[in-house]
Design a protein that fits this description.
By secondary structure, the chain is mainly alpha-helical. Helix content is 70%, strand content 0%. The chain is globular.
Length: 416
């Protein structure tokens, strides 16, 4: 059983990494569409299995579906363009790029991992009840199907921007409250809580795969490294939740039910993870906004008593007060100058990604490939790949054509 479980986990991880590499190798529209559509089809196929007798399904999955899935990924892998920087880059050649990726994305991985931790705890509570497992599977697939269809429909008509960390901040109060209520409600509550958490977790995993693919394209990072980093954090926290819930359930505390012990441990660890995910003590001691701070000016500044009284100097001519620089509000777009506005208009017209727009604007400002790579902390090959994609989308071939195209947009359309 131990060997079988280890091989199953290893095979599943390798299978997911192969698909992740495939999705990341395509352009953003193609790869993300295939990933979301595949998620919807997976849910439909799962529900279709209920139309087949269970005894037949037990043989269909290992003898028919798994070989077909393996054949599909082998055939699709032939379409991968292996000349892209993401497949040629070696971590030891650009260690600063990989350190930057880990620094930029660890909070997203941690937030998805926190949901995995919650589902692991609920799995430990419900593992002995087969009907709970069935309910979890049904709601997980239903959640994936609804999320996939919703994204596909909205994507047709508007730009979508999903922030994993921001979404977790919204979900966190509901998650921690649901665990706090766990000891006070009936057993059915725990079953439905497990199912709902797994549904949310399934959607978060799809978003994680999209974000990993985007990081690979934008940073020129090997998709196996990015997904391995995310998956290592997420699935490790899931296992910690399962093991911790199993141990907490066995702890005997006088006058406290085991489920209450599990709830207390879950609430404590969730709060601790949220604290770490928000920056921990470093964030606390960092300088905040003036509105959040209380200021007490020292009555006797250090060293004042030891300093001899200086001779009064003649009053200097008051320096002119510089005009205050307008600080952009977080919810408002801020444009540095005319080129920034024109780049934004061009992005909207040609559907460029945020990273492609950033590279295009830097090219238009006369930066070299080496300088852009240094500013964005990526390899030069990654910048060259972005340039090729930009030129293809804009249907141009030279830098002068890019400058002419940018200049053809009227920046006044965006206002001040």
């Amino acid at each position: 059983m131990v060997v079988g479980g280890g091989l199953l986990g290893l095979g599943s991880a390798g299978f997911f990494m192969l698909w992740q590499r495939l999705f990341a190798s395509f352009d953003a529209d193609h790869g993300n569409r295939d990933l979301v559509v595949g998620t919807a089809y997976a849910a439909v196929m799962y529900f279709a299995l209920y139309l087949i007798p269970q005894a037949v399904t037990a043989y269909l999955i290992p003898l028919v579906f798994l070989p077909l899935f393996g054949l599909a990924i082998v055939l699709k892998s032939r379409e991968i363009d292996r000349d892209q920087p993401m497949f040629e880059d070696v971590p030891r050649d650009h260690p600063h790029v990989y350190r930057t990726v880990v620094r930029d994305y660890w909070r997203s991985a941690f937030c998805v991992g926190a949901l995995g931790f919650c589902t692991g705890i609920m799995r430990s509570l419900a593992i002995g009840e087969p009907q709970v497992g069935a309910l979890v599977n049904v709601l997980s697939m239903a959640g994936s199907l609804v999320a996939a269809v919703t994204v596909l429909v909205l994507w047709q008509f508007k730009n979508l921007r999903m922030n994993v960390v921001g979404a977790y901040r919204v979900v966190f109060p509901f998650v921690i409250t649901s665990f706090l209520l766990l000891p006070f409600l009936m057993v059915a509550y725990a079953q439905w809580l497990a199912a709902i958490l797994y549904a949310v977790y399934s959607v978060a995993i799809v978003l994680m795969m999209i974000q990993c693919a985007q990081a690979s394209r934008d940073r020129g990072i090997n998709p196996v490294f990015v997904y391995g980093f995310f998956g290592g954090v997420v699935y490790a926290l899931h296992d910690v939740g399962f093991i911790g819930g199993s141990f907490a359930e066995q702890i005997s505390v006088t006058g406290i039910e085991p489920v209450a012990v599990v709830a207390l441990v879950a609430v404590y660890l969730l709060g601790l993870m949220y604290f770490v995910g928000q920056g921990g003590f470093r964030r606390i001691f960092a300088r905040g906004s003036d509105a959040e701070s209380i200021e007490l000016v020292a009555l006797r500044p250090a060293g004042e008593a030891a300093r001899p009284a200086a001779k009064a100097a003649p009053a200097a001519k008051a320096a002119p007060v510089a005009k205050a620089k307008r600080t952009p509000v977080a919810s408002e777009p801020f444009y540095q100058d005319r080129i920034s506005k024109q780049a934004e208009l061009l992005r909207q017209h040609y559907r460029l990604s945020a990273r492609e727009t950033e590279v295009m604007e830097l090219i238009a400002r006369g930066n070299t490939v080496a300088r852009i790579a240094e500013d964005l902390v990526v390899s030069e090959n990654t910048i060259r790949t972005h340039s090729k994609r930009i030129y293809t989308k804009l249907d141009i071939h030279k830098k002068q054509e890019l400058l002419d195209l940018i200049d053809s947009f009227d920046p006044s359309e965006l206002g001040d």
